[in-house]
Amino acid sequence: MTWNLQGRVGDWQAREKAIRAHLEQIDPDVVMVQESWVEKDGATQADALASMLDRHAVTAAELAGFDRYPDAPYWVVNAIISRWPVRLVEARPLPDEHGAPTWRHVLLAEIRRPEALGGPFFVAGTHLEHGLDRSATRDAQASALAVALAEVAGPPERRRSLPPVVLGGDLNAVPWSDEIRRLTGATMPAVPGFVLVDAWEAAGGEGRGDTWSDTNPRVPARAVYPNRRLDYVMVSWPRARGVGHVDACFLAAAEPIDGVWASDHFAVCAEIDL
């Protein structure tokens, strides 16, 4: 599952109760979250949710910008919540089109699932640059993201014998954009021979799958460009035969709980055979 939690915008404490309720209903094995708050004293939303749900969590708290903005009450980063123990591999900043590092990043982790259930696998969570006119920046970030994923996927000669990497994130890009086409191999991929499968497309998700929608009252009523699919679950290829098949992909958290809409983004859930 991937979900942008919208930081502490609005009545965030009421929203956090709704977020927890949705997670309890869906009961995902792994959740990649974006705009997950962290505090200067080390407290994190991911840890709080993981404690409530009897899960494990890692965050990119080390990339929070408190050094540059010491008066900020909180920061938002990517985080991963898992049913099984999780090992942080790396929190890596992503560059802009000029090669300069940005506050956007990818969080790489190993999910230490027991061998009896299939064994460990790698996941990644990310959040690319926002803005209708920032495709060039997102394209550079997507290329760097592909490099990071290819590294954790293992040497090229071994990828066909290893499980895939699962990516979840708010990519801030529509499916026909240059950046998504580069990730999925619809145009020249950033890493030769390494692409990602869009779970929504692979599973034949119902409808357009818009994750930022004017049916959600948390989306501004006069948003310049509402009704877009911006959030994705993707599975790397090549991979071992028989693993990584997407059995289903659907939206979640697309309705209020006790009158509270949890976030301005809907969540994306994928059932992946790993």
Task: Count the DSSP helices.
Answer: 5
In total, the number of strands is: 12
Task: Specify the overall morphology.
Answer: globular
Main structural class: alpha+beta
Q: Could you give the order of strands across the largest sheet?
A: 5-6-7-8-10-9
The CATH superfamily appears as Endonuclease/exonuclease/phosphatase
Amino- and carboxy-terminal Cα gap: 14 Å
Most strands sheet: 6 strands, mixed
Strand content: 25-35%
The first-level CATH class is given as Alpha Beta
Number of domains: 1
Q: In CATH terms, what is the architecture?
A: 4-Layer Sandwich
> What is the string of helix and strand elements?
EHEHEEEEEHEHEHEEE
Annotate the secondary structure layout.
Layout: E1 2-4, H1 12-26, E2 30-38, H2 45-53, E3 56-59, E4 75-82, E5 86-95, E6 101-111, E7 121-127, H3 135-153, E8 166-170, H4 178-184, E9 195-198, H5 199-203, E10 231-237, E11 245-252, E12 267-273
Parallel strand pairs: 1-2, 7-8
Antiparallel strand pairs: 2-4, 3-4, 5-6, 6-7, 8-10, 9-10, 11-12
Helix pairs in contact: 3-4
What do these coordinates show?
The chain has 274 residues and is of the alpha+beta class. The protein has one domain: Endonuclease/exonuclease/phosphatase (Deoxyribonuclease I, Chain A, 4-Layer Sandwich). 20% of the residues lie in helices and 30% in strands. It has 5 helices and 12 strands. The strands form 3 sheets. The chain has a 6-stranded mixed β-sheet with strand order 5-6-7-8-10-9. Strands 1-2-4-3 form a 4-stranded mixed β-sheet, covered by helices on one side. Strand 1, helix 1 and strand 2 form a beta-alpha-beta unit. Helix 3 packs parallel to helix 4. The protein is globular, with a radius of gyration of 17 Å. The model has no long low-confidence stretch (mean pLDDT 97).
